[in-house]
Amino acid sequence: MIRKILVLSFWAPLLWAQGNVSSCYEFPRDAVEQIRQDVAYLASDELGGRKPGSDGDELSREYIMAQFRNHGVEPYFKETYLQEFSVPNRVDRPADGNYFRFKGDALKLDEAYYPVMYSGNGSFKGETEYVSFGIESQKLDRDDLDDEDLKGAIAVMEISSPDGIHPHSKFKDWHDIAKRIRLLKTKGAKAVILVHTKGNANSPKSEFKSLESIGIPVIYVSDPKIAKKLRRSREVEGSVSLHAIEDVTYNVAGMINNGQRRTIIIGAHYDHLGFGGESSRYTGEEPMVHNGADDNASGVAGLLGMARFLSKTQDPVMRRFNYLLVAFSGEEMGLLGSKAFVERTATRQESWYYMFNMDMIGRMEDDRLAVNGMGTSPQWRDLVEPIECGLNFEFGESGVGPSDHTSFYYASVPALHFFTGTHPDYHKPSDDADKINVVGIYRVLGLMSSIIRNTPQGGDFVFTTTKIESTKAPKFSVTLGVMPDYLYSGNGMKIDGVSPDKPAAKAGLKAGDIVTQLGEVQVSDMQSYMQALAQFNQGDKATLLYQREGKVEKAQIQF
């Protein structure tokens, strides 16, 4: 559920008054300039995009630790602020350890075949056994497997399903290739060869940074002629040798111990994309540093602002709690840092009261602020809704999202995520410090302080589970080439930015347009938009309906 509250004006923070529980906490005014300096350094070219394992990664955490030390924030891990963990860098495939021979001829790696991320290391030789789609289901009245023939065999399996890969497939629960490979392994297959001779499907990834090994060799034969021949029993042999190379990075955690029973966690991730990579939206040919000013130098600046304030405040209301301040790494790679932090501090979580996560709080416009995770405790609304900080709140219920509060939610910790919205510079080199609304960050800190002030000291802070709006995100083989406005709560999907030379741009769409239908699917929100997009493949055409300045327009999309 999304709910808006309109109160006061942009300059309301300058008129804050203490004593009224609905007023905004008077956060120190000198914080604004320090926030500006924090963002300027963390998002400077000198730090090279703060990719985990890089020199910029080290410089970032040295800066964070220096700020902690200078303001009396104690190390959380005995005598250190640092918690080490590993992140994936790449997977090496030595040429002498990878081969596949069919009819005595060696197929060329990456041209006719390649190992996939589910593969284990090892050699295989023997007869193939074609298992069609590899499905075994009484419910669906489908059984592709012969247990006797599979024992010790090399299974050949289609990557599609009997009715293709799409959101309305009868066999949707079997679209997961890994699930089918595991079943083949339990039936005795000693290796699996994936092919695509039936139905629609995207080829498995040929490049990946980490492994999800199922324990037997698994390759994908991309040559269509050979793939068809493998549907008949053939003698084959091959070998797979994959080696995951990892980098080391660190979470940075400090403690303000006020001798209290309850601890409030305040976090933000400090890593970004370095010079780009898979998550980048940059389409240029030359590598460029991605400074990540909003994502997430803004959140780290907020974290440091709270550290400075909470370490020196003499306000007895704010000193009713201890504060655990954490700068996470590895967020851009899948919340790796916060996951490691939560898993390795399990014995210290009894005092944890609730968690604040700041991720992308630097682009506030029209006083808008998303506060996600409101459903993680029934107490949040009584704490947050009465506060008058001059903000237009967009409340989200779910405790699960693409940021570090999710790791705490899964540890049963009530958690809020503060977010000022996405923008055309998201995951691009243009996300720079000069575009940051520093006063907006300052206002978020005022809101957070107000929530702490309103929090009763006694009793428990109740955790509740929330509905996960999408248990599994749809997989896309096409892109429209737009940046959605994630704070838009009306009907449809509002476009915040359009990428050049992509289908939307070629069809004449622009920022501010609201997509209401794509193909045959009505688009009412982000979820329905993603479901609509998942139905298309490269080369498909679709009619798109959208609103522009109150009028319904039509566009033809070529994917």
From TrEMBL:
<dbReference type="Pfam" id="PF04389">
    <property type="entry name" value="Peptidase_M28"/>
</dbReference>
<dbReference type="InterPro" id="IPR036034">
    <property type="entry name" value="PDZ_sf"/>
</dbReference>
<feature type="domain" description="PDZ">
    <location>
        <begin position="478"/>
        <end position="550"/>
    </location>
</feature>
<dbReference type="InterPro" id="IPR045175">
    <property type="entry name" value="M28_fam"/>
</dbReference>
<protein>
    <submittedName>
        <fullName>M28 family peptidase</fullName>
    </submittedName>
</protein>
<feature type="signal peptide">
    <location>
        <begin position="1"/>
        <end position="17"/>
    </location>
</feature>
<dbReference type="GO" id="GO:0008235">
    <property type="term" value="F:metalloexopeptidase activity"/>
</dbReference>
<dbReference type="InterPro" id="IPR001478">
    <property type="entry name" value="PDZ"/>
</dbReference>
<dbReference type="GO" id="GO:0006508">
    <property type="term" value="P:proteolysis"/>
</dbReference>
<dbReference type="Pfam" id="PF13180">
    <property type="entry name" value="PDZ_2"/>
</dbReference>
<keyword id="KW-0732">Signal</keyword>
<dbReference type="InterPro" id="IPR007484">
    <property type="entry name" value="Peptidase_M28"/>
</dbReference>
